[in-house]
Design brief:
Length: 289
């Protein structure tokens, strides 16, 4: 009996030890980035959310038969090669992404294709914990800064507040505001995409396309709430002074708009679900005729 248990659990233990030996420094560096970079502070939550996404489907998973596949070893080998190449080239994103490849390979090797397919989305979800390379982040963030500044200038100008925009700088009558990288909306976009990904995965929606629609709805929602936040900041700066726009109220507004974003996301989910239900009822009515 003891030998049988050892034969079952030995591959799990050996893979876990090998994973830690290979990635312990990478994981520690990743935790350091989450701690020091506000753009990725949500990274702490991602492994727990991914685990919950798997637990959420536990009743389905227990019905699947464990059928290990040696294709998983090839995926593990590919992940190790990615880690080596990333280490040699000092490319952190490749090194970190290789962890996900190895985790996917380990699941395939230990449990087989059926279980792997069932948990593939939570495994892929782990990509949200990996910081985007700076060269890509900057190419996305700066155009978003200009776009956010342009729309904000049009909105506050439309409500009667004189404003002059120069690039990503808004000149008001009593002060100037710069739409910096943190105000580009990219931070809220990455956080909201991570939230909408888990939300869509667990949403009670019958259509896969609707789940994708719910997930991608995070993009316009993030842009919308960021424009709202910038507009509110500009109004506070105009009527309450620059200190009010950059102090506690400015910091608190970040939490407030994220709550608004979540409520909008929930509203989109409710709307899609209602459309699905109406479609089902219409089909039932037609078939009843």
């Amino acid at each position: 009996m003891q030998k049988q248990l050892m034969s079952v659990y030995a591959p799990f233990v050996l893979l876990a030890i090998a994973f830690w030996v290979l990635y312990h420094q990478t994981i520690l560096d990743l935790i350091s980035d989450w701690s020091n970079d506000d753009n990725y502070s949500h990274g702490f939550l991602i492994p727990f959310i991914a685990s919950y996404m798997i637990w959420y489907r536990r009743d389905e998973l227990v019905r699947y038969e464990r059928n290990p596949s040696n294709w998983g070893l090839m995926a593990i080998g590919a992940g190790v090669m990615m880690f080596i190449v990333g280490n040699i080239g000092a490319e952190l994103f490749i090194m970190r992404f290789s962890m996900i490849v190895i985790i996917a390979g380990a699941v395939l090797f230990l449990f087989g294709w059926q279980i792997f397919k069932a948990v593939s989305v939570p495994i892929l979800y782990l990509i949200f914990m990996i910081p985007i390379p700076a060269i890509i982040w900057n190419k996305i963030a700066f155009p978003l800064q200009l776009f956010a500044a342009k729309i904000t200038a049009e909105v506050i100008g439309g409500i009667g507040i004189p404003v002059l925009r120069e690039g990503n700088i808004l000149h008001l009558a009593n002060t100037s505001l710069e739409v910096v990288d943190a105000c580009s909306g990219l931070r809220s976009l990455t956080s909201l995409l991570a939230l909408s990904g888990a939300f869509a995965y667990m949403a009670n929606l019958a259509n896969t396309y609707n789940k994708w629609l719910l997930f991608l709805s995070a993009v316009p929602i993030a842009i919308l709430v960021n424009i709202f936040r910038l507009t509110t900041t500009a109004i506070m700066a105009r009527y309450m002074g620059e200190e009010a726009a950059q102090g506690f109220l400015h910091d608190a507004s970040g939490i407030f708009v994220f709550v608004i974003a979540f409520l909008l996301l929930f509203g989109v989910s409710w709307l899609i679900k209602r459309v699905e239900d109406r479609s089902v009822h219409s089909s039932d009515h037609v078939s009843g005729l």
